[in-house]
Amino acid sequence: xxxxxxxxxxxxxxxxxxxxxxxxxxxxxxxxxxxxxxxxxxxxxxxxxxxxxxxxxxxxxxxxxxxxxxxxxxxxxxxxxxxxxxxxxxxxxxxxxxxxxxxxxxxxxxxxxxxxxxxxxxxxxxxxxxxxxxxxxxxxxxxxxxxxxxxxxxxxxxxxxxxxxxxxxxxxxxxxxxxxxxxxxxxxxxxxxxxxxxxxxxxxxxxxxxxxxxxxxxxxxxxxxxxxxxxxxxxxxxxxxxxxxxxxxxxxxxxxxxxxxxxxxxxxxxxxxxxxxxxxxxxxxxxxxxxxxxxxxxxxxxxxxxxxxxxxxxxxxxxxxxxxxxxxxxxxxxxxxxxxxxxxxxxxxxxxxxxxxxxxxxxxxxxxxxxxxxxxxxxxxxxxxxxxxxxxxxxxxxxxxxxxxxxxxxxxxxxxxxxxxxxxxxxxxxxxxxxxxxxxxxxxxxxxx
Length: 449
Known about the structure:
Layout: H1 2-15, H2 20-63, H3 69-98, H4 104-115, H5 122-125, H6 129-135, H7 141-168, H8 182-191, H9 197-208, H10 219-228, E1 239-245, H11 252-263, E2 267-271, H12 273-276, E3 277-280, E4 283-286, H13 290-298, E5 302-305, H14 318-335, E6 342-346, H15 355-363, E7 367-368, E8 373-374, H16 383-397, E9 400-405, H17 409-424, E10 428-432, E11 437-439
Parallel strand pairs: 1-2, 1-9, 1-10, 2-5, 5-6, 6-7, 8-9
Antiparallel strand pairs: 3-4, 10-11
């Protein structure tokens, strides 16, 4: 703002009183040029955001082709990192397009112009489905119609791509590899042709890898946290615990609660602090999602800590790790009564934890909770494929903690099939009863000693 005032002052001085006819035309020309530059920058930002979203989605799918067990473990962590990055980019893109009502049509057309480039396929465009949905009610009438047409096209595509997965759900047992329809398999093969999962991992090293930090006297706390950590192995046979990360979401979390209520199943929601409220000078203030938390508690579900901003915790120093945990826990303690739905569980973002992180979890009197059944709803755009994967992995493991996310429409769509098929195969569902995990059997068998 000060720079623009300075430019106007300089222009007035340059023209001088003896050249008044020059001042106003030059001022108008300068302002027009500045507006043009701003519009160009905005269009460039929109285009760059769309390209990064698509590139990240491609990298996620390539990571899923990891060749060996070590690569697959690293690929899942990296894939979740990219997934969360795409959530941030999606919100940024909506903000960029809707920032100015006057510029909204042009910025929307910039987004769709990139989407329509020949280098991108219909499968690539699936990543923009949630963005188009978020924009569909905010755009002017003409662009709203275009967004509706595109959303319908993507819905039709998902039906085609998901057909094989729907059929596969009826196979018992699910011991074979996840079936891929010919169209989707061809797409994955095409984007994986020149890049391997290892190459993607190497490219992400600078973002994900950190130098180890000595923890000295905290070694004992880290060791204790490792012993106490839940990873699914502590559950009885034929038992699963449904968990949902990254919420609460104003639309998708209530939809998931509706499904769980209808199915008579309970879950644990690992929530991000900034979605719960604010913490200023040690004072926690609940935000607009508080009614959702109240509802899930009333319906018998439970809450866990998932950090405040969802960072890669090993990259942070001890002080910042402690703040990420403590601020979210402060909100939980204000919003969730002890002995009701407060689990005392902490889920490290991306499952990334080292001794430094584990020590802080223990020092905050929490328990690390990870998973052994990954729905990969963070990577997979097809609800039927997500459901197939959960059931298949549950049958292979025999029991475990299921990782899902209550921030996606596709998770909402997949959940009924997940619960239905697990029940059909004899699985029981664990829940938090205010003190420990239990299974709703006639004997009320305890999970935790």
